[in-house]
Amino acid sequence: MTADQGFHFIDGDWVGDAPNGYRAIINPSDGIEIGSAPNGSAGLAEQAVMAAREAFEHSTWASDPRLRAAVLLEFADVLESRADEIALLMARENGKVQAQARHEVAAGYSEARYYAGVARNVFGRTFESGEGKMSLMTREPSGVVSVIVPWNAPVTLLIRSVAPALAAGCTVVIKPAPHTPLTNAAVMDCFNAVSSMPKGVVNSVNEFGTEVGVLLSSHPEIDVISFTGSSRTGKQVMANAAATVKHVSLELGGKAPALVFEDADLDKAVAEIKRGVLALNGQMCTCISRVLVQSSIYDAVRDRLVEAFKQTRIGTATTPQVELGPVIDRDNQARLLKLLDLAEREATILLRGGAGENGLSGGSFVLPTIFEIDDVNHPLVQRELFGPMFSLERFEDEDEAISKANATRYGLASSVYTEALNRSMRVSRKLKFGTVWLNCHNRLLAEVETGGYRESGIGRLHGIEAMNDFLETKHVYYEV
C-alpha cells in the first residue's frame, strides 16, 4: 500500500476492489487531488463482518487479555513511529492544521496505551447468597463491533472506539469517512504491522455512499455499533439497529456554549474561546459555537473577541503556525456562506468572514464570523453550524446564563469562565452537558469519559466506562 491508496483492509489483507468505482481525494487547502480510494460495497462489508466473526469465535483473541494488551502496545509504538507522516497526510486530507494534527496522532497512541493497561484489568465479582450458593458475575466481550468514523478526527475518533473494543476482546469492522480514507488506511497499516494480532480482528471497508453503512448498522452478526457523527445520521443508525436489538454507542452533534461571568480572567477566557472556536477550523462537535457574556462586561468581551479573531493566522493546513485552515470541502464552504448570509439578514454581524482572498481562493476557506443575536430559538442558535462562526449572547445573572445555555437539544460540551469556585460548581451541576470545562475548553483525556446528554448521544467513550459498551455481564450460579 502507498500513501495515495486508501485500500480496504479485510482479514489481514489489503483489498483494492472497487465495485462502485473510485473516489478522488481532494486537498481542501488548494483543491488539488492527492490520491484516490476504492469505493466499497455491501459484499465487501459482508466479507469483513464474517472475518471479524471468525476471529472472535475461533481465535484466542476474546480469551487472552495479555495478547490484547501486547497488540495495543505494539500498535501504539508503530503509530508513534509514523506520527509525523500520518499528521501530514491528515492535514492534506481534511485540512486540520499541523499542530492540531500532530496532537491528534499523539492522543491516538496515548489512548491505545491506556487501553492496553485496561485490557489486563477486566474483572468480575462473586456473591454468596446462602450456604453453598455462589453467584459469579463475569465480564465477557460482546462480539463483533462496527465502528463508523467521521472525517474531522480520523485518528483519535477511530482509536477511542477501536481501542476499548479490542481491550474488551471484541473484533471490529471499520467504516472510515469518505473524505479521509487515506488517513484511515495509514492507521490500518499500523495495525497490519502488528504481527501478533490474529487475522480478522481489525477490518476496514471504505464507503462513499450508504450501502456499507446500512449493512454495518443492521447485520445480524454485528453485536455493537460505535458511531460518531451527526445527530441526524445517529438517529438513522439507531433505527437500523433496532431490528436486531444491537447495543448502540453514539457521540453526535453539539452546540457548545462558553459562559463568561463578570469576575472571569478575560485574557484567559478570550484565548480559550478563540482556540475552542477554531479547533479543526470550527468543525468539531465540541467546538465553541455560542459565547454567553454577563452584561456588565459584555462590551469589553465583545471588543476583545473581535480583535482576537481579526488577528487569526489563516492559510493552508501544512503551513507552520497557521491557526485556521480550510473547511472540509466546497460543499461545506457553500453551506457556511449561506449561513453567513442568514446572519447578515437576521443578526448583527460583528466580524464578517467570507470565503477569503489573497491566495486562499484555491481552497475551501471560510474566515471567522462573529454575530450578535438575542433569540435563543433562532436557527442560528439552535442548529449546529460546524464552521468558524459563533453567536455572541448577553445574560444578566447566573439563572439566565444557565437557562440560555441549556436552551438547545444538544448537550455534549460547555465551558464556564469565573474565578469564583462556588459559582463554577453550582453552574457546572446545572448545565445539561456531558462535559463542563472550567476556565478552559476542549481538554480531552484518554482516562476521562466523554459523551453527550439529549440529542448529543448515548454512552461514554474514553475512560474506564468506555469498556461498558463492549462488555456483557454474565451471571453463573453454583449451588452445592
Description:
37% of the residues lie in helices and 22% in strands. It is α/β, with parallel strands linked by helices. Strand 3 (22-26) and strand 4 (33-38) form a beta hairpin. The model has no long low-confidence stretch (mean pLDDT 96).
Strand content: 15-25%
Quote the average pLDDT. 96
Order of strands in the sheet with the most strands? 14-15-16-13-12-18-19
State the end-to-end CA separation. 59 Å
Secondary structure category: alpha/beta
Please give the number of β-strands.
Answer: 22
Low-confidence stretches: none
How would the global form be characterised?
globular
Q: What is the helical fraction, as a range of percent?
A: 25-40%
What is the radius of gyration? 23 Å
Tally the helices: what do you get? 14
How would you characterize the largest beta sheet? 7 strands, mixed
Give the gist of this structure.
The protein has helices spanning 42-58, 65-81, 83-94, 98-119, 156-168, 181-192, 211-218, 231-242, 266-278, 298-310, 330-346, 379-382, 398-405, 421-430; strands at 8-10, 13-15, 22-26, 33-38, 125-130, 133-141, 144-148, 171-175, 202-204, 224-228, 247-251, 256-260, 288-294, 348-351, 369-372, 389-395, 410-411, 413-417, 435-438, 453-454, 457-458, 471-479. It has 480 residues and is α/β, with parallel strands linked by helices.
